[in-house]
Design brief:
199 residues; alpha+beta; five-stranded antiparallel beta sheet; four-stranded antiparallel beta sheet; elongated
Length: 199
């Protein structure tokens, strides 16, 4: 039975598309650039730590446990919608970016959030108020409406291939260690059987 369980563990490491990590194993101490649904997103925040991150074609899912932080920024001001507001401490939109953040420090909460970016630009409360006042005060000839062009901040992509290579190397190291342990166990079992004559 132990042999089967160990073999199952090795198989899980070899299967593509499977991701697993211990609690708070995914740490991001710098800005990480993701592309979801053709939209550039920055996952940032000093000491930002999450349990897992799964990127899908049109959204991404993040598992956040107590003591963990997470923040995502859309520098192109794309709208960010979340599947839950629990633990949410930031949801802003201004003239330069759209920001969504969660902070579970000092809590016992455990949440899984699905974040869906949209090509629709978020609405800046300041711009909405300014436009509303301009429309209300325009009592004479029909003046042209005030349109504020979005300010798009260029983002320098962070190369994540290095992190991926390091993760693959770590998995290979773990796999080699497991195989070595399996060989040792098998040798011990053979020696025991030979000593007892049960072979």
């Amino acid at each position: 039975m132990k042999k089967l369980l160990l073999s199952g563990s090795i198989t899980a490491l070899l299967l593509p598309g499977l991701a697993f990590a211990a609690y708070n194993d995914v740490s991001m101490n710098t800005t990480v650039v993701l592309t979801v649904n053709g939209i550039t997103l920055n996952v940032s925040g000093s000491g930002a730590t999450i349990e897992s991150l799964v990127i899908n074609p049109t959204n991404f899912q993040v598992a956040i446990k107590n003591g963990s932080l997470f923040q995502v920024t859309a520098p192109g001001r794309e709208s960010l919608s979340a599947s839950t507001g629990q633990g949410q401490n930031v949801k802003t939109c201004n003239s330069t970016e759209s920001v969504l953040g969660y902070n579970l420090s000092g809590t016992n909460e455990t949440i899984t959030v699905t974040v869906t970016p949209s090509t629709t630009l978020c609405t800046d409360a300041t711009e909405a108020t300014s436009t509303s006042r301009s429309d209300a005060g325009g009592g004479g000839g029909g003046g042209a409406p005030v349109v504020t062009a979005p300010v798009i901040t260029p983002v320098t992509p962070v190369v994540v291939q290095t992190a991926n290579a390091a993760a693959i190397a770590a998995i290979k190291t773990q796999l080699i260690a497991l195989i070595q342990q399996l060989i040792v166990l098998l040798n011990q079992e053979i020696q025991t059987m030979q000593a007892s004559g049960n072979y």
